[in-house]
From TrEMBL, chain A:
Lineage: Bacteria, Pseudomonadati, Pseudomonadota, Gammaproteobacteria, Pseudomonadales
SMART domains, sorted: AAA (SM00382)
GO function term, MF aspect, one: L-valine transmembrane transporter activity
InterPro entries according to UniProt: AAA+_ATPase, ABC_AA/LPS_Transport, ABC_transporter-like_ATP-bd, ABC_transporter-like_CS, BCA_ABC_TP_C, P-loop_NTPase
Family the entry assigns: Belongs to the ABC transporter superfamily.
The name this protein goes by in its record: High-affinity branched-chain amino acid ABC transporter ATP-binding protein LivG
Record-level GO cellular component terms: plasma membrane
Taxonomy, superkingdom: Bacteria
Residue span, ABC transporter domain: 2-250
Entries under Gene3D superfamilies matching the protein: P-loop containing nucleotide triphosphate hydrolases
From TrEMBL, chain B:
Keyword hit for Electron transport: no
UniProt-recorded name of the protein: Branched-chain amino acid ABC transporter permease LivH
Localization per Swiss-Prot or TrEMBL: Cell inner membrane
Alphabetized Pfam families for the sequence: BPD_transp_2 (PF02653)
Gene Ontology BP terms: D-alanine transmembrane transport; L-alanine transport; L-isoleucine import across plasma membrane
Endpoints of the signal sequence: none
Keyword check for Transferase: no
Transmembrane segments: 20-38, 45-65, 71-90, 102-121, 154-174, 203-226
Length: 251, 307
């Protein structure tokens, strides 16, 4: 579904990403791990269209997308989160989910003014979808709170719900467990697995929490100083000498 | 008693002017809230709204149509349509190509657009004052004729009511409609809105169109209130409305409404009790004071640095 081939990203004299290759298949959870500053987020930014990569190819469902603007890429069914939560803080929880469905809605001003049956039907449908996802992530009782007032773990779950109402095929999560306590991390763990199993979504994950990564990933890619270091199943990665060196330092 | 009447008179005058400042200020504040630029051509859009209304009124008069409600509604609709198209076009031509560049570039572009529009109207309509027919005359008088009489004209009442309707409609639109919802999302995080598939260009255009339509309403109202317009009509009003927007907290719609009213009342009280020449001194001093003690303006939220 997603294929990244020899991706490179250079900022002036700094080669932040050097020849990274990875792929994500249908219904697969793939993780990118590596020490801080390894270039993981830069890879994400290239895939999602924030940066125009300086080398390599990115194919999403057969289409080359490298260098395309972010909004076009997102419309192909790829959606991402960021290391820090980026909700629309002064909007309510349910509004956050409704606005994410904006492009599926008829936004014709006239239709809105006279509230045509089609307009109302779609509004109702998007509200139902929002309600479904709020129940799914356990935020239904907080639907009318301002998103900025939620607890941090709730904001993280709302962010995932907001991604899911756009009906993506690939979900890219940048350190979703950052700042969560162990119980919240376990909930997140189950949520991500269920997204794959119940909703057929592929997930590309950047994460530092090793128990989460090892527990749910189908495959793992390790990056170190911008270069691919290893890739394979969690078991293979756990036993890879290079990976152990990069993480623990050489003795 | 007389003092009270005098005070009330100043208050009414101030609220009249202030509510039109507020209508114009909304255009500044919405655009700033969404793309963080100051649309210095907004005062000109307002001026063009006033001219269009005048042309429509004159046109209807030559056709022999003088039934007041019809004339006002047609003039209002024409002014809103022309000003909105102008607002839309200005954004497309002068701001979109330089969006995301260094902050000063859109600012210069806006000033250029403002000069262009002023001169265009100079050429097309002449630079002299043009009389604006006082379509709404009469009013109520309070107090005895020998001393001070407070007047509340029908024109002032019209201004209050129209402003109130516009403000309520805008508030409903922003809080309830899909486009309003998207406007709020874009103003909070344009990049994220983009990623979620919202057509942010369209939302930005909508902001310009709404701001311009409200400015056109103010143009018609103030044209009738002052009784004459000229191509520089938008300059001072634009400056005042911009001040009102900053005073109330730029980016905040309720702030623009409040800022407009405060500025209008402050000016009118100064003219009434001190001297008309001091009114600008007082209103800009007020701005400086508020910015000193509350840099975000009265209802503005502190800007969180986006990373």
């Amino acid at each position: 579904m997603l294929e990244v081939k020899n991706l490179s990203m250079r900022f002036g004299g700094l080669l932040a990403v050097d020849q990274v290759t990875l792929d994500v298949k249908e219904r697969e959870i793939v993780s990118i791990i590596g020490p801080n500053g390894a270039g993981k987020t830069t890879v994400f930014n290239c895939i999602s269209g924030f940066y125009r990569p300086t080398g390599g190819k990115i194919l999403f469902r057969g289409q080359e997308i490298q260098g395309k603007p972010d909004y076009k890429i997102s419309r192909l069914g790829m959606v991402r989160t960021f290391q820090h939560v980026r909700l629309f803080n002064s909007m309510t929880v349910v509004e956050n989910l409704l606005v994410a469905q904006h492009r599926h809605l008829n936004t014709n001003l006239l239709a809105g003014l006279v509230r045509t049956p089609d307009y109302r039907a779609r509004e109702k449908k998007s509200l139902e979808r929002a309600r479904y996802w709020l129940e799914r992530v356990g935020l239904i009782d907080l639907a009318n709170r301002e998103a900025g007032n939620l607890a941090y773990g709730q904001q993280r779950r709302l962010e995932i719900a907001r991604c899911m109402v756009t009906e993506p095929t690939l979900l890219m999560l940048d350190e979703p467990a950052a700042g969560l306590n162990p119980a919240e991390t376990r909930d997140l763990d189950q949520l991500i697995v269920s997204l794959k199993e119940d909703y057929n979504v592929s997930v590309l994950l950047i994460e530092h929490d090793m128990s989460l990564v090892m527990g749910i990933s189908d495959r793992i890619n390790v990056i170190n100083q911008g270069r691919p270091l290893a890739s394979g199943t969690p078991e293979e990665i756990r036993q890879n000498d290079d990976v152990i060196k990069a993480y623990l330092g050489e003795a | 008693m007389q003092d009270l009447l005098y005070f009330s008179q100043q208050l009414i005058n101030g609220l009249t002017i202030g509510s039109t400042y507020a209508l114009i200020a909304i255009g500044y504040t919405m655009v700033y809230g969404i793309i963080g630029m100051i649309n210095f051509a907004h005062g000109e859009i307002y001026m063009i709204g006033a001219y269009t209304a005048l042309i429509a009124i004159t046109g209807l008069a030559t056709l022999g149509i003088t039934w007041l409600p019809l004339v006002l509604i047609v003039a209002l609709i024409c002014a809103m349509i022309v000003a909105s198209s102008m607002g839309w076009a200005v954004e497309r031509v002068a701001y979109r190509p330089v969006r995301g560049k260094h902050r000063l570039i859109p600012l210069i572009s806006a000033i250029g657009m403002s000069i262009f529009l002023q001169n265009y109207v100079h050429l097309a309509q002449g630079s002299r004052n043009i009389g604006f027919p006082a379509l709404i005359q009469g009013g109520f008088l309070f107090g005895s004729p020998d001393t001070f009489q407070m007047s509340l004209s029908y024109m002032q009442i019209t201004i209050f009511i129209t402003t109130l309707i516009c403000m309520s409609a805008l508030t409903l639109f922003i809080s309830r409609s899909r486009i309003g919802r998207a406007c709020r999302a874009v103003s909070q995080d344009l990049g994220m809105a983009n990623l979620l598939g919202i057509d942010t260009n369209r939302i930005i255009s909508a902001t310009f169109v709404i701001g311009a339509a409200l400015a056109a309403v103010a143009g018609l109202l103030l044209g009738m209130y002052y009784g004459s317009i000229d191509p520089l009509f938008g300059f001072i009003a634009g400056l005042k409305a911009f001040t009102a927007a900053v005073l109330g907290g730029i980016g905040s719609i309720p702030g623009a409404m409040l800022g407009g009213l405060i500025l209008g009342v402050a000016e009118s009280l100064t003219s009434g009790y001190l001297s008309g020449e001091y009114k600008d001194v007082v209103s800009f001093s007020l701005l400086i004071l508020i910015l000193l003690f509350k840099p975000t303006g009265l209802l503005g939220k502190p800007e969180v640095e986006k990373i």
